[in-house]
Amino acid sequence: MSTATVDAPASTLVKRPSFKERYDNYINGQWTAPVQGKYFDNISPTDGKVFTQVAHSTKEDLELAVNAADKAFKTWGKTSSTERSIILNRIADIMEQNLEYLAAVETIDNGKAIRETSAADIPLAIDHFRYFAGVIRAEEGSHNELDEYTVSLIVEEPVGVVAQIIPWNFPILMAVWKLAPALAAGCTVVLKPAESTPTSILVLMELVGHLIPPGVVNVVNGFGAELGRALVTNPKVKKAAFTGSTATGRLVMQYATENIIPVTLELGGKSPNVFFPSVMDADDAFLDKAIEGAVLFALNQGEICTCPSRLLVHEAIADRFVEKVVERTEAIRMGDPLDTTTMMGAQASRIQFEKISTYLKLGKEEGAEVLTGGEPQQMDGALAEGFYIQPTIFKGHNKMRIFQEEIFGPVLAFTTFKDTDDAVAIANDTLYGLGAGVWTRDAHEIYQVPRAIQAGRIWINQYHAYPAGAPFGGYKQSGIGRENHKMMLSHYRQSKNMLISYNKNKLGFF
Amino acid sequence: MTSRLDATDKAIALIRQLKETHGPLMFYQAGGCCEGTQPQCFEKGGFYLRMNDVCIGTVEACDFWVDKDLFEYWKHAHFTLDVLDGFGVGGFSLETPLGKTFKVHYRLFTDEELKDLAPVKTAE
């Protein structure tokens, strides 16, 4: 690993944005102090220091937010798709005008490198609003003449107030994945950001809040332990969306049984990234791309539910291929996340840093071989107290804990396979089914292997692309629902069937 | 007999503090992203167990349950429940508003210990 802290030219450093001393909740279009007046510190993982405070909310604050959302729904739910589309496009435009600022804010809040927030997080969020602004303009309901006298109309109606609980790995982007379809469908929202990354969404609301009618989007900060149950079981909440762990996801489902409301859940994975022998048939651009594809485990410091955290390579090419993967991994430049030349930033919190460190120790105890990395990364100067981990590659077997548990860090578990059946068996030997990668030059493998892998998203000859319009969600214990696609609209809607008779004659029963 | 679960003094002190506020407690550990594979502390009975989930022991009269699928990978390790200062992985665990996070330290059992492990109970 090279570190960019000391030797980076000043010109590559993005200016650190300034923050307010504290941020209130955003309720009913107003910045609203928490009822009990408490706040908690928000620490930047880049340097381990407090950079602002946010509201430590209680049930009273949720009540205000849900009531505001419920009131707003009475008018927002009746707006035309044209009106909603225009607003979503305006939000996207303002975000685009402030892309550099939002990217820097996200880097301070989450710790990831500015290169990624500038090129992925914020641009994808912008496009997400535009995608949903577009699709709702082209939608039509259905009319079906069931017989000469009977017509069935299907009208899609928004469910109402929705509760959205957001993870900390892509604070703005994951909020937008949930916000954009909900607003497009005509729902109003109470959104709870993650407690370790609560600020960037508030900064986004500072920029775009005035574009949205009061009460349509409400942001309440605080802790899941104090807010989760009250939010999901509030009788005015008609749907819940959550991204996080399986235990918490099951708890959200459990709470949703109280008022029988639907849930969508995205609960993580342990995604296999499978490389077949033909990958090394030529030393060309495709091989170069494939090597990068294996190293994408380090994107976002590995804090992605679809992190390609299991590397499966055919034994015929394993040694040669992995040597190149190690070499490329060792070229990852760690450094100040605000430096545009930094390739990998800080883990999102001290606790996450500690968790990854535990797995580094565990992998060694289990007998896995460290091919590179394997330790926390001590940075210099201002970053010395930040939460940095070396990108790490372990060699082992699929029954090891580092192959089965989602580490959510830059830790790759590598093993080999003998043939296609073996590859598929190992790929599917996991509790999860969120993502997978398949790399090959063989036309048959390109179709047959992805069909055999039990996962909601299979990338073929690429990885970590998230364009709006490509549905994203999990098989098995990875969750319920498909985000990032117009089909998500159906999760925020009820289908109403109007069944009309044009026959003047009675049935004849009575 | 070798126990599967112990707790540090700090963890015990925090459990006692949480009991004063919330009454009887339970722990549950499963997988997934963000707070996945972290021990989660809930009010006793507040989490709906899966059939055949495994209780690996108790701390301060709180059952420590683990997901039945992951127990297959965790049954070879001793768990020491500890506490870290700070929060950040998310989830609904009760200690986080206090600025604390429960954490497990693992130690693989020796061959000798594996022969004489404490029995587990399963959810029915």
Can you walk me through this structure?
Chain A has 14 helices and 25 strands. Chain A has helices spanning 59-76, 81-97, 99-110, 114-138, 171-185, 199-208, 224-233, 246-256, 285-295, 318-330, 350-365, 401-404, 420-428, 443-452; strands at residues 2-3, 22-23, 25-27, 30-32, 39-44, 49-55, 142-147, 150-158, 161-165, 188-192, 217-219, 237-243, 263-266, 272-275, 310-314, 333-334, 369-372, 392-395, 411-417, 432-433, 435-439, 457-460, 475-476, 479-480, 493-501. In chain A, the strands form seven sheets. Chain A has a seven-stranded mixed beta sheet with strand order 17-18-19-15-14-21-22, with helices on both faces. In chain A, helix 2 packs antiparallel against helix 5 and helix 9 (285-295) packs across helix 10 (318-330). Chain B has helices at 9-22, 68-74, 111-114, and strands at 5-7, 25-29, 40-43, 54-59, 62-66, 77-85, 100-108, 121-122. Chain B has a five-stranded mixed beta sheet. In chain B, strands 1-6-7 form a three-stranded mixed beta sheet. The mean pLDDT of chain B is 96. The chains are: A alpha/beta (510), B alpha/beta (124). The interface between A and B is large, with 50 and 39 residues.
**How many structurally independent domains of chain A?**
2
Strand content of chain B: 25-35%
Average of pLDDT of chain B: 96
Rg over CA atoms of chain A: 24 Å
Q: In terms of per-residue confidence, which ranges of chain A show pLDDT below 50 for 5 or more consecutive residues?
A: none
Q: Give the overall shape of chain A, derived from the CA principal axes.
A: globular
